[in-house]
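Below is a filled-in request sheet from our internal design queue. Each sheet records the structural input a requester submitted and the sequence that came back. We keep these sheets so that new team members can see what a complete request looks like end to end.

REQUESTER: design group, bay 2
PRIORITY: normal
MODE: inverse folding
CHAIN LENGTH: 373
BACKBONE (tokenized):
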């Protein structure tokens, strides 16, 4: 591995026992901005042939790959591995401008790097789209399509509320809204501004996007930068995509994505103007069960429908004169909306719900504070 002197793009890939998949991951990056790219593979707690396979693949394709080997503690995980790789790139690449991350069981689209770099010309962070490898989708045949459709519909409603009521989150309206470590890209300046990835076991991807938004930097959620993820059911990170897929295939009353809070909590905080930036991280005790989604969908459908009338009358707290002040409306009304794709039509699936606008939406359900609130 030669030490580049002018390369300005680093791709960080954490890996643990990925001998079967790391070859495909690296091959997908071959030929993409080779003169500007250095790949940093962070092997952690690995006892298979990942190092040997990666070394052979890099040598055969003339890829610039640096392999770091680390032993992480039980309190550390993929967040730590991503940070190790980013820290190394910042320290060893004097011309570094861009940091991209993906996962060892993923295959990037042929234009993944170029699309990310193009988008980073007008943004500080880019959250790409995660699709499933076509050759492995059969494992999902056991999923209940109705549950998947409901989860997709609820995600769309939650993002609509966040886009209109949460600070610096208007851009998520109508997007996939995800922030998966399998496809993230940053300007180095933005990454350093917020202190980088947290050294946590899981959830570091959403946390860093929250931090970048909170710092007032621009985040894009795009369908243009695509990575294809495996459908394996035995993953490397607890609470990651593999665990999510397994729960959905088993057909149990699983917990939906942890960026989708309880509807009553969401409505109450939207009305009070106390939502944090997107994406939220819902604590385990506040997660929503998939079988309860129809009720949550009804609640948010009702609330979102009220947004169509003047916001000061429909959803904001009243002043002593009985109306929301125009200043409050200006401050609080903002127009705008490891993830398992809910299905190609799930976000567009209509859910017909009747409601009585005279009936107050319940807001008394208590839920622990969301991280970052």
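RETURNED SEQUENCE:
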């Amino acid at each position: 591995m030669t030490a580049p002197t002018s390369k300005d793009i680093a791709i960080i890939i954490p890996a643990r026992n990925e001998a079967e998949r790391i070859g495909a991951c690296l091959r997908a990056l071959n030929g993409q901005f080779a003169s500007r790219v250095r790949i940093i593979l962070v092997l952690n707690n690995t006892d298979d042939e990942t190092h040997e396979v990666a070394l052979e693949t890099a040598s055969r394709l003339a890829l610039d790959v640096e392999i770091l080997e680390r032993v992480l503690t039980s309190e550390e995980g993929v967040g730590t591995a991503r940070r190790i790789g980013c820290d190394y790139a910042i320290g060893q690449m004097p011309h570094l401008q861009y940091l991209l991350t993906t996962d060892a069981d993923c295959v990037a689209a042929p234009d993944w790097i170029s699309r990310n770099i193009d988008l980073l010309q007008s943004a500080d962070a880019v959250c790409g789209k995660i699709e499933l490898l076509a050759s492995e989708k059969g494992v999902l045949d056991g999923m209940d399509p109705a549950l998947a459709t409901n989860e997709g519909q609820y995600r769309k409603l939650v993002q609509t509320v966040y886009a209109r009521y949460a600070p610096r989150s208007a851009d998520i309206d109508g997007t996939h809204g995800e922030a998966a470590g399998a496809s993230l890209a940053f300007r180095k300046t933005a990454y350093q501004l917020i202190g980088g990835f947290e050294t946590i076991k899981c959830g570091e991807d959403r946390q860093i996007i929250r931090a970048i938004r909170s710092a007032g930097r621009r985040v894009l959620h795009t369908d243009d930068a695509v990575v294809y993820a495996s459908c394996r059911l035995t993953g490397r990170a607890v609470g990651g995509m593999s665990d999510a897929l397994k729960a959905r295939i088993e057909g149990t009353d699983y917990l939906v994505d942890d960026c989708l809070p309880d509807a009553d909590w969401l409505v109450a905080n939207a009305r009070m103007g106390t939502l944090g930036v997107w994406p939220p991280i819902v604590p385990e005790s506040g997660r929503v069960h998939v079988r309860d989604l129809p009720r949550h969908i009804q609640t948010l459908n009702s609330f979102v429908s009220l947004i169509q009338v003047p916001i000061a009358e429909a959803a904001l707290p009243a002043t002593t004169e009985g109306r929301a002040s125009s200043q409050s409306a200006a401050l609080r009304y903002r127009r705008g909306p490891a993830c398992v794709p809910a299905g190609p039509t799930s976000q567009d699936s209509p859910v017909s719900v009747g409601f009585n606008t005279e009936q107050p939406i319940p807001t008394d359900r208590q839920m622990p504070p969301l991280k970052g609130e």
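SHEET NOTES:
- The longest strand covers residues 219-229.
- Residues 309-368 have pLDDT under 50 and may be disordered.
FILED BY: M.R.
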